[in-house]
Amino acid sequence: MFNFNLHAPTKVLFGKDQIAGIAAEIPANARVLITYGGGSIKRNGVLEAVRKALGDRVVFEFGGIETNPDYATLMQAVELGLAEKVDFVLSVGGGSVADGTKFIVAAMHYDGDAWDILAKRGTGAQKIKSAVPFGVVLTLPATGSEMNAGAVISRRETGDKLDFHSPHCFPRFAVLDPVTTFTLPARQTTNGVVDAFVHTTEQYLTYPVNAKVQDRMAEGILQTLIEDGPKVLADGEDYDARANIMWAATMALNGFIGAGVPQDWATHMIGHEITAMHGLDHAQTLAIVLPSLLNARRDQKREKLLQYAERVWNIREGSEDARITAAIDATRAFFERMGAPTRLSAYGIDGSSIGDIVAKLGEHGMTALGEHGDISLEVSRKVLQAAV
Ligand code: NZQ
Ligand code: ZN
Question: How far is the C-alpha of 221 from the C-alpha of 215, rounded, in Å?
Fold first, then answer.
């Protein structure tokens, strides 16, 4: 196992009716900005519960944060927050609202052009010295953003989708009430399960470092998603299944399974470029890229793929190659069963844009991806070509 520092300061309030608990987490005299998306929280009663919990605090609202939150929209929220001297921000919604909120709270304190936080990879985010405190009420289990310090921000004007991380961007608290997820449309339920699955494989399907706890936790998360993913699709109001999916998604990207182990993230980086170019949902891009990438990296990932085949899919028969192929096929079949097609062509993309996608990867410095840093632009091109 590698050395690691683990910092997971977000307080989790998990379960039914936990939204009421935010009253004790936000200072009574705070000037609060509620950030939200396209309005689902108004239709399903979550906003009402949040406003009730906030009592007579001074509250402002900023809605309209789109999926794959856009820089231009977020800068409007920064202006509002500064003008109204907001000192606490509450993100109510899915990962896009949580990510957008991280950018807003960092940009409100940022000295310089806030776009640098994303454009100057690493150094821009290092310049974040503080941020407005914020909490998250999560309504879509998927990204893990509710308990981590990363965010992915898009800029449609320039066709960019970039991530940043800052220790100042951990939520103070995260409310995870599975009941808030009952109203998710099937497509978003699917996206959440696929995203959490691929977060887990990005940190698990690399090479062995004898990290037993992390491996077993990752396998437990994957098996939970495989078992309960179809249940939440079949019955959106199955509380127990929704609860298990919600906690699985948080645990997949809150730092624990990734501590002390190698990490890949190539599927995500390639996927982000597909979203930026074609507008596919984040998880759709992962369903397309992961099976193809695992196949292309079967030699480099051999030992972990065999462990994955045996422990997650119970595949024990046949040659090593046959078992690896069966595990990749099972992964693809699971995504398809969950309603996420795994080929570019299924989304109407014929492959003619692969050159442009690879060029964007190059422009963003994504030229040595993966746990070995050996996924060159040529490898990414082959992964995409095999995914048409
Ligand atoms: O906008 P509203 O009206 O709220 O509707 C949303 C949105 O249309 C809807 N929704 C959310 N909760 C709902 C609901 N509809 C009904 N009932 C509910 N309870 O779902 C739609 C999608 O929401 P969004 O927040 O965009 O989805 P998700 O949570 O999947 O977030 C995707 C974004 O997160 C980034 C992705 O790249 C993408 O931009 N990621 C962030 C990560 C992180 N911070 O660690 C890691 C991930 O790998 C990912 O890249
Ligand atoms: Zn993801």
Answer: 10
